[in-house]
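Data card: per-record layout.
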Amino acid sequence: MNKEPKWKVGDIARYPNRSCPRMYILEATCNAESDFRWWYLCLSSSGSVCCNSEQNLLTLDEWLAFWERMRDDITPREWRERAEAAKAEFVPPAWWNEALTRAMTKP
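The structure for this 107-residue chain is written out next.
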């Protein structure tokens, strides 16, 4: 396993599902005592705070490769629209900064 984290606090990763939610990395934790697996506490673009393993967080290129494998199962229009949305610059919703502050300061 990788001893260096793939993501650092403040990075925005993508989650592998059809809506490609962005995940803001709040904290990175390594289980060095057993297997050096990295876990990340994240604030999702939908507003939830969750924990994800390193293999569940993707770069844009990794998400696009994941999405390419879905091409035969999804209508061409939906496939194109989702890929375009994933490539678009992330515009944080109005509640984003408050949620980040709350997530970073409360246990």
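Known properties of this structure: Residues 12-105 form one domain. The chain has one domain: 12-105.

See the next section for split statistics.
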